[in-house]
Amino acid sequence: MPVAWWVAQRCLYGVDKNPFAVNLAKLSLWLVTLAKDQPFTFVDHALKCGDSLVGLTRAEIGSFGKDPTQDLPLFKYLKEKVDRAKAYRTQIQALDTRTDEDAEAKLSQWQRAELELEEAKLIGDVKIAAFFNGSSKKERDAKLSEYTALVRNSRQAIDTEDNEASIQLKTISNALRQATKPITPFSWDIEFPEVFDRKNPGFDGIVGNPPFAGKNTTINGNPEGYIDWLKIVHHESHGNADVVAHFFRRSHTLLRSGGTMGLIATNTIAQGDTRSTGLRFICNNGGMIYNATRRYKWPGLAAVVVSLVHIMKVTR
Prior knowledge:
- It is built from 13 helices and six strands.
- By secondary structure, the protein is α/β, with parallel strands linked by helices.
């Protein structure tokens, strides 16, 4: 088995909100690993589509309402389903898919894993929709209470077509994902349970070229309330910060203790509100910048000057 192919299947993960970018990444890995005898889908379990900045943890999805005594059964129920998905995904990584039989087995395990995760992702969508379907804290709290009742009524029959509450939940999810400015939530520890369900949870390393976008561009390119969401998820952040600072924050959160990240950023990453939202907060909360390059001229034809920042997570 080629080493590059083994690494791609077992060690690499990726997320992008653009489905075309995800498919392009799959094609690139298929070509660069010389996996001509492998199906194009050999990394379907590891490269996924979603908004890296909009998602919930398993605990946040499992504690949907405000009453812990009522939420505990839901938390335990979803944990069991995610644990089963993790078992299927572990089997996927163990298969080498060099034969048609292996490829079919891998596809079957992937479908089973995704089926186990469906309910957790649906409930996560609905909880996120409660935020984006309100324009104030009062409205969002009201929506959360309304949706909490639907979740509790439908938990035992989420896939039953004649279950009215279940149908309503799916309608809410579809409205979120298919809006004029859609949101495709991505809950990292649900989608990649084997990464976050270990003694020292998180990724060993993260590399990326996240988007640069100022406040107005972010507002115009996303649904109403998007910046409010970022400010709540990343406390002590500023609404004027470039969105790249939030990708730095999310990456730092996703690292395991001792993990490192290297991201490309706009030069404003070290300036003003973007600096305080991103690098300053990270350095005050367990992150250490061990290498940085300012005003790096992008190679090739693009007339772009960027910053390169490398950070280690020294404490959790």
